[in-house]
Specification:
Blueprint: H1 5-17, E1 19-23, E2 29-33, H2 38-45, H3 47-52, E3 53-58, E4 61-63, E5 73-79, H4 83-104, E6 109-110, E7 115-116, E8 119-125, H5 137-149, E9 155-160, H6 161-171, H7 174-182, E10 187-193, E11 196-199, E12 213-223, E13 232-241, H8 244-259, H9 262-268, E14 272-273, E15 284-285, H10 287-306, E16 310-311, E17 317-319, H11 320-326, H12 328-333, E18 340-341, E19 348-351, H13 356-364, E20 375-384, E21 400-410, H14 415-432, E22 438-444, H15 457-473, E23 478-482, E24 491-497, E25 503-512, H16 514-518, E26 523-524, E27 530-531, E28 534-539, H17 544-555, E29 568-572, H18 578-590, E30 595-597, H19 604-613, E31 618-622, H20 624-629, E32 631-636, E33 640-646, H21 647-662
Helix pairs in contact: 4-5, 6-7, 9-17, 14-15
Bound molecules: zinc ion (2 copies).
Length: 663
Amino acid sequence: MKLCPYLCKLFQKLVYKHMIKITFPDKSIREFNNDVTGIEIARSISERLAKKVYAISVNGEVWDLTRPINKDASIKLHKWEDAEGKHAFWHSSAHLLAEALESLYPGIKFGIGPAIENGFYYDVDPGDEVIIKDNDLVRIEQKMTELARQNNSYIRKKINKAEALDYFTRKGDEYKVELISELVDEDIFLYTQGSFTDLCRGPHLPGTEPIKAIKLLSIAGAYWRGDETRKQLTRIYGITFPKKKMLDEYLIMLEEAKKRDHRRIGKELELFTFSQKVGQGLPLWLPKGAQLRERLENFLRKVQVDYGYLPVITPHIGQKELFITSGHYDKYGKDSFQPIHTPEEKEEFMLKPMNCPFHCEIYKSKPHSYRELPVRYAEFGTVYRYEQSGELHGLTRVRGFTQDDAHIFCRPDQLKEEFIKVIDIIFLIFKALDFNNFLTQVSLRDWENKEKYMGGEKNWKKAEKAILEACDEKGLDYIIEYGEAAFYGPKLDFMVKDALGRKWQLGTIQVDYNLPERFDLEYIGADDKRYRPVMIHRAPFGSLERFVAVLIEHTVGKFPLWLTPDQAVILPVSEKYNDYAKKVLNFLNNSDIRTLIDERNEKIGKKIRDNELKKIPYLLIVGEREVENKTVSVRKQGEGDQGAMKLTDFAKLIQEEIRKQLK
Ligand SMILES: [Zn+2]
Ligand SMILES: [Zn+2]
């Protein structure tokens, strides 16, 4: 049958009008019907994939898989492996927890219930008469499992503010009412699954079915909105997985992580402490910890001298004006430590959140020619950032910390070489500290929104190319994240994987076109004209606090020999040999080996056990035979008896082991 050509064209036009172009991460483009959803796109690839995706990014925004896409878009489907996928999974799980709670505790009121780094929590108010206790968690878990099996859909509904206020007022949930009344947006979204409705922006899973393994981990008190003057709510932490096996592995990892908790080990090894009187999140380094930290600093200092860094020292506070110029006041000012006032009216200082503005002023203190670049200023600079008290955690989240900071001011054509040199330094550190498992991420611009970046197209192109070439030349296996760059420059991040496979972000190398502009930094080019230098921020350790915490959790406190507080301990078999032990101590200390004596009147077996618990790498046992032969009997941590050795041989053994670690 032949259609009339006019009708045929009209038909095509109508169909065409209803097609949209979907761009995939590999830049391939396919056409779909208008209003296609993420889950339909996944299914068009394969049913298997559709079962594994939990969310979709549409033009950089994460959406529900069931939300219709009605214009051309770049998309990325998110599986469990992506942070966005886990986030949708755990956010949906928080709603499931709330549904279970509401059915077990009618009338319970809800605060907030976000997804967090590992799992989710919900802050709830079960009413003054009801207390939710640890042994209630199993019952709540069972309810969640029962509800998850119903495979209820998460249904999104747009309403306006008045309707939302009306809904939660009638429900009697004053916390939600408070949150809604502060919203500026008129459009408010509710999500309903089963019998439970929550205020939320999403995204969530299409339904509850993928939530197969559920564990509620703990209960804590949490003030409403983190404000101590307001009601304390009950915070329930949980985690969920798509497979039971994944939950089992996670729980084993959690047990193992407990044994490695740096807060406990740091206390046992007398490395650091905290004092309520000094203030939360302000670590106090004890002598052994301070010495360990000094060894880390000296190690890096020596490397930096080899790489042409110049030391600088800057104060802990600076005028507010300095941080307004740098833009840090905007970023850290409002919710952070407040300005320090002086007897002088209008004079205001701030604790420094960053060292960079000071280093910019140092650069500016004299003119620079293109020939003297790069200039590299290094400082172990202590900075202060106000973290919410609920966010503080041992040495990993603190309010005052010391960065192994440096700023490199260079010409654009020097970027690649400088990157290579910083990567070399990071490699030296990872080797010396036995982090042989790490990931590298290059954060570049979002190519769709180039206008939001400062520094100019030409510079960005050059910098992005320089980073990628530097990574290739160093043979790094890296992932590229488009859109993850800061607005002022691309960056390279190193994440180490610790012994439990947990990822920790450590070293960063960041290009910056913003601060040289804000501080009007210049150099004189070969043509006598003025140019802007490029700035590189870099901190291989990140901060000493965080680095030491990660190192403790990675090694369970068994530090590499060069770094460990006490390298050897002498154990006299009985008091009779204490004099000889002292001679050995003298000899080893003179050979720069950090040694102790355990002179307690205890059985040798007990002395060995106690000192092994202190993670001292070498135990040196001395008795009758050792005195006679002028030797020590060596036991190595984890490896047992090494036999008798002359003192000079033992010293050589230690020195050789250290030399290998620091090579
Ligand atoms: Zn939600
Ligand atoms: Zn900086």
